[in-house]
Amino acid sequence: MAQLFPLVFIGVIISVIVFLYFEKKAIEAKRRHEKNGFKASEMTINENFERYNTQSNVTFYFSVMFVFTIFMSYFGFFKAGHSLVEVFLYIFLTTFIGSLIIFLLKIKKSILIKVFAAFLYGAPLIASSAFGFIITYIVYSKLM
């Protein structure tokens, strides 16, 4: 169990850095749209998603975390002999701690922005981690 905490620490650091990178890209996309004369008050929620490039940023975040999880799961978990309980604990702790960090980084923002940012961090991370572990487990079990 003590071997799990460095893996969680690495997972949290990498996932938060990747999330903040794609959040920065979303803010840059918003600024480009504002330069072109679009006003937020006139937009629907769908147009706001387009303005922030939400779909592409979340897709890229998911993809990067999926690839990271494949490497992490193979070298950090299956090679080390960790159990399924430790895999679930890793996914939970990484998501929970990272969401808290995102929530604290947005402390001066409105509650809606905090919750939305934490959701956009946590949901793709849980899905990419689960799929990454499943794919790695299937491949690793076929090799052994």
Tally of alpha and pi helices: 5
Instruction: Summarize the helix and strand pattern as letters.
Output: HHHHH
Mean pLDDT: 88
Largest sheet: none
How much helicity do the residues have?
Answer: over 70%
Number of strands: 0
**Integer-rounded radius of gyration:** 17 Å
The total tally of domains equals: 1
Q: What does the oligomeric state look like here?
A: single chain
Shape: elongated
**N-C termini distance:** 24 Å
- Tell me the structural class: mainly alpha
How much strand content do the residues show? under 5%
Residue stretches low in confidence (pLDDT < 50, at least 5 long) are none
Describe the structure in your own words:
- The chain has helices at residues 4-35, 45-51, 54-78, 84-105, 111-143.
- By secondary structure, the chain is an all-alpha fold.
- The protein has one domain.
- Helix 3 (54-78) crosses helix 5 (111-143).
- The longest helix is centred in the last third of the chain and has 33 residues, at 111-143.
- The chain starts with a helix and ends with a helix.
- The mean pLDDT is 88.
Provide tags for this entry.
mainly alpha; 83% helix; elongated; 144 residues
Concise overview:
The chain has 144 residues and is an all-alpha fold. Helices cover 83% and strands 0% of the residues. It has one domain (4-23, 60-143).
How do the helices and strands line up, and which of them pair or pack?
Blueprint: H1 4-35, H2 45-51, H3 54-78, H4 84-105, H5 111-143
Helix pairs in contact: 1-3, 1-4, 3-5, 4-5
